Amino acid sequence: MEEDVASALCPPTSRLAGPSRIPGPLPRRDGPPGAPTQRSCLWVTLRQGAGGPPWQRLRAPAPVTPVAPCPRPASGHGGAEVAPMEKMSGIGDRTGPVESKNEAAMSELVPEPRQKPVVPMKPVGINANLLGYIGIDTIIEQMRKKTMKTGFDFNIMVVGQSGLGKSTLVNTLFKSQVSRKSSGWNREEKIPKTVEIKAIGHVIEEGGVKMKLTVIDTPGFGDQINNENCWEPIEKYINEQYEKFLKEEVNIARKKRIPDTRVHCCLYFISPTGHSLRPLDLEFMKHLSKVVNIIPVIAKADTMTLEEKTEFKQRVRKELEVNGIEFYPQKEFDEDLEDKTENDKIRQESMPFAVVGSDKEYQVNGKRVLGRKTPWGIIEVENLTHCEFALLRDFVIRTHLQDLKEVTHNIHYETYRAKRLNDNGGLPPMTSETEENHESNL
Asked: pTM (2 decimals)?
């Protein structure tokens, strides 16, 4: 048995030199010539069965040191001679006393690895390519039906001096008599001594869509000799509507649909002087631009030439920018790049809108059009070469009506609400009416 192991571990030189020897660096001889050499690592030429491929070497070669030749056994076998098995235990057996101590010491020094926390698997994304029709796109039709049943609320305020055509322009916008009829000067009418607020409500239906329209007029604004603080009644009215909505909102048993009387849009009419804005114009827009959406409008633009109109619009935009007055649409409220591009074009080219209003129809080239008759022809209201009324109508009604309502609710009303609740410790003061409602609910 010892001879077989010796022949396997220390093969003769004739076998090591054969073709089955694993290639490696040649051994170096440091001793006298003819002395045999031995590697410190074990080279084994084993075969998997008969004629199988040789195994890879177990270790990288270490420096060669001269050793004494292996004694040949007395039996005379031709295999290489090896030392007894107890001397080779360090090579073939890893359970010696020295290595067992080292392993025990290393196990004390190296802590056991901690188990990693279990990370939940990410949800698998649903394939966008559906195998069949589900009906998700019908939610738009559901929303349309529900909204058409409830209807819309839209409240528009017109502010400006008397005689600028405020009521006529509103009637032209909605093509109906939604504002008080613009008639000539009535001697029985007296100029109001203070600014009055008149709200007229109508229900307009078009294509099955109902909209409750409220037009708020402000007669007496800017008509006095002393117009100091003449914007205060208007600002008070706007805040009162915010307060009314807030009280309904904080009630314990509030209505399912709170009536919305908040002012969504304020058309401010500028006199077509052709020079610059008056101090009254600047003060009004400076105070109210923080509480309502202001859209500046140049009234009766047909009184100016094309060159005067272009220069006046540029001058008004510059004065508004210098005085830090923000009008709708504000730059910070643009949600995405598409809205920013569209609104930038409106702010830089269209604002303020130079408009002409008329609720009378005339025959032009076989068509009935709204316009104003002059000695040199008819000024067509909806013709862009004559005025910018069509741009104002599309801007207020066809493209930005919903955005006007959202900015009013999310920006102006929320600002008022936060300030009001902060000043009163979280809730508005309770009136006798709210106390009765509270007791009845309890």
From this structure: 0.66
